[in-house]
Batch of 2 targets.
Target 1
Amino acid sequence: MKIVYADSLVIGGGLAGLRAAIATRQRGFDTIVLSLIPAKRSHSSAAQGGMQASLAAAIKGEGDNEDVHFADTVRGSDWGCDQTVARMFVNTAPKAARELAMWGVPWSRVKKGPRQAVINAERVTIVEKDDAHGYITGRDFGGTKKWRTCYTADGTGHTMLYAMDNKTIECGIPVHERKEALALIHDGHTCYGAVVRDLITGELIAYLAKATTIATGGYGRLYAITTNAVVSDGIGCALALETGVAPLGNMEAVQFHPTAIVPAGILTTEGCRGDGGLLKDVDGYRFMPDYEPEKKELASRDVVSRRMTEHMRKGKGVPSPYGPHLWLDITLLGKEHIDKNLREVKEICQYFLGIDPVKDYIPVRPTQHYSMGGVRTQLNGESPALRGLFAVGEASCWDMHGFNRLGGNSVAETVVAGMIVGEYIADYCESAALDIPTSVARSFVDRENARINELIGSRAGGNDIYDLKNAMQEIMMDKVGIFRNGPDLQKAVEQLKVLLVRSRNISMRNKTRSSNPELVEAIRVPKMIKLALCVAYGALQRTESRGAHSREDHPERNDRDWLNRTLAYWKNEKDELPALEYEPLDVMRMEIPPGSRGYGAAKIIPHPDSEKRTQEIEEITKSLPGANRFQIQKALMPYEVPEKYKGKNERVGVGHE
Amino acid sequence: MSTKNRGRTLKFHIFRYNPQVEGDRPRMQAFEVEEIPQMTIFIALNQIREKLDRSLQFDFVCRAGICGSCAMIINGRPNLACRTLTSTFKKPQITLMPLPAFELIGDLSVDTGKFNRALSERIGTWVHIGKAQPKDLSRLEETMEPDLADEIYELDRCIECGCCISACGTKRMRSDFLGAMGFMKIARFELDPRDKRTDAEWYEVIGNDEGVFGCMSLMGCEDFCPKDLPHQTKIAYLRRKMIGTALAKK
């Protein structure tokens, strides 16, 4: 048995994984990153529009701070997030943007004086402050009160990932490419690493480590049409699930992005609308103000996606061979702006649609985009059930997004979680001994080897893995999409159960043990079907509508019965359904008790504690006359971050206020 | 939406060789695929793998022209396969070869990762802050002229796909030649005021035949860069700068 040892093993080489790896390496721990692909090719690179950080240098960001960013994030989550985590996040996001500036990200900067912009379909002149000249600027995004999204044109994920991977290389962190983790090595209490398959030679290797971190991104590929990269198949989440002890959180919380192109499903950034782009229907009519008079095209993503779907159901979609779609109109932004700030969008339109968005409308439709759910963690990023198992970024349910993530908060989370959780992983490495019985590792390697032998030796007459995958993706599209209802979800669960059973009897055409794309699918797809069941079954059980989870048969947000987080366990390998448990969110500890989001008008069944907590907050605030915002915040909901990130953030013109 | 090509049968001629399988020999293999509207080579290759040959190796990640995984030689020219529509070929014959100048993994898959990491380590593709101390993250960041930030971004758009390397005549003759990807990265960090490396230090890296003086100016890099990066201008710029540095040294 080949064994590789490390202090810190990070599975996944996107922004979150790399930043966590840098944290443990900088604290002196032997760190290895595993990746399916070269790290710079990770799906983080596809983030276009930007990262939210309340730097407040741009004039339209004036008055922004952690408190405003916090409130936007909580509202965006439809009160489903962990508010403590959201606080840890908003405190650290400005530091993350500034750290990346030091590491080379060429953030777009404030240019003093007047400039033209498009706001609510009007050309307006914005005058930037002299003293803000040269500081990092921000653009408008959905669901935010201020222009807070830092960017480099519409290639933000690319520049962030390149800076991060370059830092990784500077730190001398090895990235073991074309390696796939098949199972976590654990004893039911502690995680000791992973069984890993070399995708070229087929060799199985035991990677043993004090701390194992899952940073494998989201599970968009459970759906037939998604903006996600082909590697976003949720396998990291499945690794945790298959331990039988580590829970996944809120797997039913799946985001649909309003503007992916039709039919390819490739993203066009929210920056299109943030910069002034409009949504139009078959008649060329701008319909969003009718539905959302306040935020219009810039309500949160879940709301805009639902409104678009509603409008298409009224017959206002544009017919196409691939079903109806709507138009995204950015022609009003002008050639100069598009060439400079939306050039990836322009390229995508040219290559995949053969159109020029300077002159032509872009055909778009809401498309699966983001996974709010993932490996459930505590505040320190560690699994509540397995010591030494951590998760960061989209793969995790650290839970700053609740049931809907705001645009720009995803790449921001990757880096911030990498910074914060990375320190906690290093703390764990400091305290833990690398004390792993090789017999445990052996048994896991043997088990995975036996599974592969079974697949390679499979006889004809079994199921085809591609058939199962296609069927799963269609079920998720048709029955677990933007609008959900009980009967369809029930059908989805039953059909997925059948697929799961069938996935236990696979026939392979290609029986090569080394590099073999079919074998890769045969290993992954049964894991993906388990995740699909977590999503569908969780959605079936959650009889309310919250954020991106929208039940036509239960349209109200039910704080009374459902202000909680779903935990999904897969207790026995032979089970056909996850076991669901629920973790309540404590209103009495919230800084902002549940209320209206201010967009996406929905009925709310209130939580009995909401009013009580609101009063309590008023009393606490009154009892602190003359206190500053930090003191009040601390009295309402104290939180901790690692020492090095505790400093108050400085802003242009207001200092460290 | 164009449907004029509906119904064509495309014939793909694909390079096959799996070095992992003992006794396997490089060869070309033909596959037929029914063309559908807006079909890309990404879609076609996945169909071939699913329906016709489960062993076919190729690399796609973002399938949106962003990540740089899928560069290959398409009818003789290096390009990103994911954003190449089959309808752009008048004749229904499409020949696919792996990128030359990179280690072959199998069929159309090459090891760009190993190459790119080595290149990064060779020229230090990160901001060298020199003797400066890392800044306190709660303090305001350093300012930068907005136009300069935009200019750096222009040079930072390389996706390391390898098209420039495989299109480079010099690289094919001289394996230690840095290549356009390396020059573009140097131009990017040389422009960045946060990087404190001096011209003399850059000269040590590229002031030789493996560096800018080896370039034969065939400009395959400029012709085939999928991101339209200004290779020609930047190589010329670095060359002038290095000549100046060399003369100043004497």
Target 2
Amino acid sequence: MKLDETLWYQQLGYFNNPFSIKPGAFHDELVGPQEIITKVTQILSEGGVCFVIGEYGAGKTTLMKRIIGQFKGEKKVIYYSCNRKEGLIDFNSLLIGKNWFTRFFKVKSENMILLLDEVQDLNLKEQEDLVELYREKKFKSIALITKDKSDIQLSNELILLIENNFFQMRNLSLKEAINLVRSRIGPNDFFPDRIIRSIHKLSSNPRAILENCEDVCRYAIQEGAKEVDIKHFKALKK
Amino acid sequence: MIKMDWYKDLGYKSNPLEVDVFKTNFELLMYVEKAKELVYRLKAGNIVVIEGPAGCGKSTLLKEIIKEFGGKGKVIYVDNKKIGRNLNIEKLLVGNQSFWRKKTGKKPTGMILLLDNVNFLSEKNTERIKYFYDQDYLRGIVFTTDIYSKTKFSDSMRDRIGRRLIKLKSPSENDVVMITHARLNNDSLLESDTIRFIYSLSNKNLKKHLFNCQLVLNYLVENDKSEIKTSQIISIIQEQENVEEDLTQTCYKCNENLVHINNNWRCSKCENYCNKCGLIISADEEICYGCGANLEEEK
């Protein structure tokens, strides 16, 4: 029995799903609040601490991947997602480099940029360690990322370090949504802007937009259509 | 107990009514469209949940996925029912690699993860899986469960799954008759009405039905009979206890019974944890950073 059929995106000439929801699937792309990207990058370059908040699918992890890309090659960025941890996070072990020499002699790096994702479970002891390592200049700058500020009880010391550097990721405007879709599939007649507009009305969350675009395009290809139209969009709503 | 080679007396080389789908090689008779959907979703890099009652064919669908993607070392299948609740999925993914990969610390990418019976999966583990998915170590994931709303998935994992939910129903009587006949090579060992009756006694569970059919055929072979009364079928099935063993409450490393503390399953032999809140702690800690308990006193 043949379960493998030609996939809709392959029929359109793409090798992989252009609407992948994985953060940083297309790593030079981050459509959305440019002012946040600029400010966060600036704070991290200047040695500050910031806190990024955003709904699920708003692009927090993608933002982090973009920042990693900006500092790429300098070996100065540590990205750690706290949802991996079992027990206390050992920040000192994160500072030990990856080559055999630093591992063997336990040489700690200095002036590192720490991107800490999913910090909602970060406890006070871990926050204390973090502040200490920041003061010792082991971490030059820190970005903390989570869904909601109220998910985490921040220590007073960390609040003082963050100051006013709280950034809220927001959903996309219509123009940004069109830019996102176009950055993924390029300018093509198959997927007209009017359908993107309808999809954006349904939800302006970046992840939801990508999921809906994937399903609409798939319906259209399955029906043998040369262009996505409102009929395919209605099928999605059903 | 069932005589293990009852089918040999009936001329079969292997058990045609084998309950474990991974030991059989029968063609998929139901859910062909759903299997195609799953293959698409995995290729497109999605996370999918298959929801359906016990014995409705969830594992059979996973087996089709293994057939489709298997052989390239890219598929990981885990039955959560057969492993301990304290399993760390990260260790499983990384630890399963070859000697050289372990030595170089290189993680595999583009893997497909099939997790059966995720009712037993902890929220922590779903978060870890999410991390591996986001970092593209996992290309696609399929979870199976009987009730999706009862799983302990984190909200962010649910958000990634979105509407990628495939719902399966218990097979109809006609489906079961077709499957049973196909398994028995259309040999007229069991009448269609008998098959329907056995299914009615099996709680609409196909696995249980196949097992019960084995009980009936075993009875026929042992007693050299070709027909059986319904009252006899009832007594045979009632006699047999459910033999499926739940291994989830033992440690996956040492098989020791696990302790349940504050939604954490811990092994007293393999793990060092706080007796009050169940958090993993290092041996030299004096105070639990989770609940503040004095660990020295606990010892």
